[in-house]
Specification:
The chain is α+β, with helices and mostly antiparallel strands and 347 residues long. It has one domain: DD-peptidase/beta-lactamase superfamily (Beta-lactamase, 3-Layer(aba) Sandwich), CATH 3.40.710.10. The chain is built from twelve helices and 14 strands. It has helices spanning 6-17, 57-70, 86-89, 106-110, 127-133, 140-148, 166-180, 184-196, 224-230, 240-252, 261-264, 333-344, and strands spanning 25-31, 37-42, 50-52, 94-95, 98-99, 214-216, 219-221, 237-239, 268-269, 277-279, 284-288, 299-305, 310-315, 320-325. The strands form four sheets. An eight-stranded antiparallel beta sheet has the order 2-1-14-13-12-11-10-9, with helices on both faces. A hairpin with a 7-residue loop joins strand 9 (268-269) and strand 10.
């Protein structure tokens, strides 16, 4: 890549930071070998500042599942009822009077094709609406109870259907604990943090652990109880520097054999509220080009974004990685839009 594109990245970054919604931000861009590296912060945010990963945590959960599969401890073809008590699962997925709770596979969760509803986003009493006004903890058992009160959207593995739901990854977190014989935080440490030497990435366990504040419009939200409860679907904390190390390892084969991506790159478009995002086996795909960018060279961004403004994407067509955070809970499209704009800055 032409290093003269750095000024274009800076222009895009500066324009984005001019948004009235954004109070702080960080963007870090590198190629695989680090021959090209560009980073800029705003509002006091720097490359080693703590940031909330939110749903980028799902990539860490995905990595653990793939590592455990490589170790022969589970298979994506295992039913989740092999790891989670049937009494716990009973009533979780009843669609058109038929129960599918015991017919769910690990792969259904990973690919977001279980059809399970999402308590975080759905209904007027969603946890997203509630957490804007107050901090509160919740247990996995409570999350299951709330999910059972909602209606699934389709039968598992319905052709052409995918629905983004946090509960899919919360269930995967429970499976990781069962199979690894540790807490999820210990599994992350053992399988990811130690091998990659990540010293400032962690899953908060209590209010004593540092949890970055979140912006909702102009309001500063301090929500440690809620973040500690999110766990496998959105509870981890990191820095831009260490998120770059992780995303390179995830797609570069340092954590698991990257040949597994041959089986993970079957993408389905998510619900309409998720915009242009499609989902594969544990990660997002955002297609570039098309009607929105008619002059853009075709390609894809692979990775994940978070509802609090975080993003970590790989642009394989140009061998570039984009990570960062705009820390704004009011508009989850912001990190997606910024990532796509940064990609258009590459020739």
């Amino acid at each position: 890549m032409d290093i003269n594109k750095a000024p274009k990245f800076e222009k895009i970054f500066n324009k984005t930071m001019n948004s009235k919604l954004i109070h702080e931000g960080i963007v870090y861009i590198e190629d695989t070998n680090g021959d090209f590296s560009w980073c800029k912060g705003y509002g006091g945010k720097e490359i080693d500042s703590s940031l909330l990963m939110a749903s980028i945590t799902k990539l860490f959960t995905t990595a653990c599942i793939l590592i455990l599969q490589e170790q022969g401890k589970l298979s994506l073809n295992n039913k989740i009822s092999e790891f989670i008590d049937k009494d716990t699962l009973s009533g979780l997925h009843i669609y058109k009077s038929k129960e599918y709770s015991f017919e769910l596979f690990i792969s259904d969760l990973l690919f977001q094709v279980s059809g399970l509803p999402d308590k975080f986003e759905e209904k007027k009493n969603s946890t997203k609406r509630k957490v804007i006004n107050q901090d509160f903890p919740f247990s996995f058992g409570e999350l299951l109870h709330w999910t059972k009160e909602l209606k699934p959207h389709f039968a598992p593995r319905t052709k052409g259907k995918a629905y983004y739901s946090d509960i899919n990854f919360d269930l995967l977190g429970e499976i990781i604990e069962k199979v690894n014989g540790t807490t999820l935080a210990e599994a992350y440490q053992q399988l990811i943090f130690i091998p990659l030497r990540l010293e400032h990435t962690y899953l908060p366990q209590s209010e004593e652990d540092f949890v970055p504040n979140i912006y909702y419009k102009d309001q500063v939200l301090k929500r440690p109880k809620f973040i500690c409860s999110c766990r496998a679907s959105g509870g981890a904390v990191t820095t831009a520097r260490e998120m770059m190390i992780f995303i390179k390892a995830f797609y570069g084969g340092k954590l698991f054999n990257k040949e597994i991506f041959d089986a993970l790159t079957y993408y389905k478009k998510l619900q309409i509220t998720m915009g242009p995002i499609c989902y594969g086996g544990g990660f997002m795909r955002i297609a570039l080009g098309g009607l929105l960018m008619p002059f853009m060279e075709k390609g894809d961004l692979l990775g994940h974004s978070g509802s609090t403004g975080s993003f970590a994407f790989y642009y394989p067509q140009k061998d570039l990685f984009f990570v960062g955070d705009v820390n704004q809970f009011a508009n989850p499209a912001l990190p997606i839009r910024l990532s796509m704009q940064l990609a258009t800055g590459v020739k």
